[in-house]
Automatic annotation (TrEMBL):
Pfam family membership, one: Epimerase
Domain NAD-dependent epimerase/dehydratase span(s) in chain numbering: 6-212
Organism: Bosea vaviloviae
Name recorded for this polypeptide: NAD-dependent dehydratase
Amino acid sequence: MNGERVLVTGAGGFIGPHVVAALKASGYRVRVTRRSAGPGPDGIEAVVTGDLTSPIDWSRALDDVQHVVHLAGLAHAGPGLDEALYRRINTDATLELATAAYRAGIARFVHISSIKAQSGAFDGPPLRESDTPAPDDAYGRSKLAAEQGLAGLDLDWVSLRPVLVYGPGVKANMAALLRLASLPVPLPLGALTAPRSLLAVENLAEAVLFSLLPGCPVRRAFIVADPEPISVAGILTALRAGLGRGPGLVPVPAGLLRLAARLAGREDAFVKLSGSLVATPEGLVRAGWRPPVETKVALARLAASSGAG
């Protein structure tokens, strides 16, 4: 690496600060993009590029850059958003940046995609990179289209398809589980034992670092997940361990919980919570990626640092 400069887009989101910190710790010089003027991260060069909803002149941002890590995009926000907006931000803007990066002579373009580009299925067999991608929503289709566009460029690219990422600052479903774990009462979720894949943000950052190495295979997509899946009951047990508590889980049958969720108008959320979604990171592991933290350890650390309880 020897002081190589990396341009990071989307550094202000949940994942970005962790990736920027990992790059700095590994000796890279980091430049981040911003949508508008303002102070950037401490000690980090920032350049204003504007919003991805419109074409951007990337020349200044890419000046003297050896690698690009493209984190920016429209997050998975569920139904209701215009598919054209997903396409504009997650597909077209990605390929515009990649094309500019190729013209600037960058060495590696790392694209943060999503497991949703592989599949949106729950309760199916483990997802593998060898499976034909079958995204089932606009978000997943836009991420897959970006990967397909990258394949048409004469550029050394790597696309990472992370599963649900957790770590300090996490929101949505994992934040909800953390709030549940912090409650000083038994929880009726001990029977939710279906396996599901998670990804510690530290492990994702390590995957990004690995993707920048000369030995990483290029021009392909990789699933990124912690190697061992874990159940909802296991997640809560690990979180409560980080809070210095026992599991406190009661094995109420999943059918009864689903009925209660249906009556409360929350059945879809319960299915996503209780279902199985396992993805296998065999490609990255075979290539040499070694995630630095185990799932249970990372979950306990997340709870301990959250101030919950």
